[in-house]
Specification:
By secondary structure, this protein is of the alpha+beta class. The protein has two domains: 75 residues, Monooxygenase, CATH 1.20.1280; 106 residues, no CATH class. It has eight helices and twelve strands. This is F-box/SPRY domain-containing protein 1.
């Protein structure tokens, strides 16, 4: 139940009001007292809520939407950032260089998932760094928290240390395995993933080589900055 905000009563009560408004029919949203509350009061109420609850609140009415998204450094996003992001994550160059608390939260939502990786992979608390435990005869991987079904997306990946026998980065559906025995190019080994083998610069899909990247002679390793996936 936690502590109470200044003059607002129990956070759970605030959450109940916000949740009830979010569930109301579209034509009635924002017509009650919630739709007339000053932005400062709403900001204090919203500062108790989690991200999924804030998404629902943003759909209640234009007043609530503007309160949530008008200032990306508001108490709402600062409070959520402090509650949901580890100090190690906030200190990373990735998040330090972002201009607002909301941008930091958005970026962290795309970090690696501790629940969607090989048992031999350890995701550090910063969320953006993974370490593979040196297990013999095993190929291991990890997926990020959020996937895409369409659009154009780019990633920047830093690989520290030696590449080893097989080093592949790429994209994969939820059905692609994240661990297998032996040393193989796991990403690109089936029709559920597409991989870029950094050792030989081959592009892989469905167990076959589909050309090379970058397409130039004596391609520099570790220095290709832009790898973009586009499509549906």
């Amino acid at each position: 139940d936690g502590g109470a905000g200044p003059g607002l009563g129990q956070p759970r009560a605030a959450l109940a009001v916000a949740a009830a408004a979010a569930r109301a029919p579209a034509g009635r949203r924002g017509r009650g007292i919630g739709g007339r509350l000053p932005s400062r009061v709403l900001e204090l109420v919203f500062s108790y809520l989690e991200l999924s609850e804030l998404r629902s609140c943003a759909l209640v009415c234009k007043h609530w939407y503007r309160c949530l998204h008008g200032d990306e450094n508001s108490e709402v996003w600062r409070s959520l950032c402090a509650r949901s992001l580890a100090e190690e994550a906030l200190r990373t160059d990735i998040l330090c260089n972002l201009p607002s608390y909301k941008a930091k939260i958005r970026a962290f939502q795309h970090a690696f998932s501790t629940n969607d990786c090989s048992r031999n992979v350890y995701i550090k608390k910063n969320g953006f760094t993974l370490h593979r435990n040196p297990i013999a005869q095993s190929t291991d991987g990890a997926r990020t928290k959020i996937g895409f079904s369409e659009g154009r997306h780019a990633w920047e990946v830093w690989w520290e240390g030696p590449l080893g026998t097989v080093a592949v980065i790429g994209i994969a559906t939820k059905r692609a395995p994240m661990q297998c025995q032996g040393y193989v190019a796991l990403l690109g080994s089936d029709d559920q993933s597409w991989g870029w083998n950094l050792v030989d610069n081959n592009l892989l899909h469905n167990g076959e080589v589909n050309g090379s990247f970058p397409q130039c002679n004596n391609a520099p390793k570790y220095q290709v900055r832009n790898w973009v996936f586009s499509g549906k």
